Amino acid sequence: MNLSVERVSLELAETFTISRGSTDRTDNVVVRISDGGHEGIGAAAPSTHYGETAATVEAAIERLRPTVEAVDDPFQVERVERELAHELGRNPAARCAVSIALHDLVGRHTDLPLWRYWGLDPDAAPDTSYTVGIGDPETMADRARRAADAGYGTLKVKVGTDDDRARVDAVAEAVPDATLRLDANEAWTPKDAVRNAEWLADYDVEFLEQPVPAADPEGLRYVYEHSPLPVAVDESCVTLPDVPAVADRADVAVLKLMKCGGLVEARRMVHAARAHGLDVMLGCMIETDAAISAGAQLAPLCDYVDLDGSLLLDDDSDPYEGPVRAGGHIDLDDQPGIGLR
Ligand SMILES: [Mg+2]
């Protein structure tokens, strides 16, 4: 196998703010693996929350280079992911970029999109939600209105501010027909989360995502037992062993390729979550379509999809284009591999 690595700089269309901070731009690392006249593409979208940056990804991939270049059969993705995880227990986004590129290569060798290779129904892919980042109430209402006008039926609203109620009221008034998901990114106390869930239940809210810190599993259980709204866990559900650990204190497991380290592992987590009675949402980081498209291939296995990472980018910023369309539809067609055009 031949491996090449390239950093891509992504500009967001608007500053993106969550309870932990703001972002205007981010770097992803694109990986290309070629073999037998075909080339697979994947990307890492590192998150400092999980200890990664573009620089750590590049260093990690250099450490993995001998293993990747020694792969003699790209179809052996399960074994390769295991070997990469064994070599670098952390660095999930770096490992994920290799996993995506190898899966894309398999798709190019077979001329099959991954959804078909895996036997999935392309029509079962839920539309993605679109995220409204934190701003003042008027700004958030305006963003929500523009998103609804662009065709998004479900909006994920970031909360965890000094006045979440004013913000959610403004959004709900601006887009009365939209379904809302709320994401506090760990910002609330358990008691505040339950109090907030009580007034949020008056709106069309599907669930509360990560209301309390991941470091407070008992607080999470308290919210789950007292909230009138379902509870989704993102920061509390990172890798496979987290799935059974959250099963008695959440309704929805939020999986992300960049947290778990690869497409084999993500599929394992989907099935583990189902076995534990959890619904599954597939989420993402701020990602180029060279990563988002891999998630899109998995979308038919999921109950909810939040794959808007590339939709939040400035139009000219992403060099790739995949199956996730403006307006939220995931268009799984016959493009091979991860479905890049
Ligand atoms: Mg989240």
TrEMBL record:
Its cofactor is Mg(2+). The lineage of its organism: Archaea, Methanobacteriati, Methanobacteriota, Stenosarchaea group, Halobacteria. Residues 137-230 form the Mandelate racemase/muconate lactonizing enzyme C-terminal domain. The keyword Transmembrane helix does not apply. It comes from Haloarchaeobius iranensis. This is L-alanine-DL-glutamate epimerase. It comes from the Archaea. Keywords: Isomerase, Magnesium, Metal-binding. Pfam families: MR_MLE_C, MR_MLE_N. The keyword Protein transport does not apply.
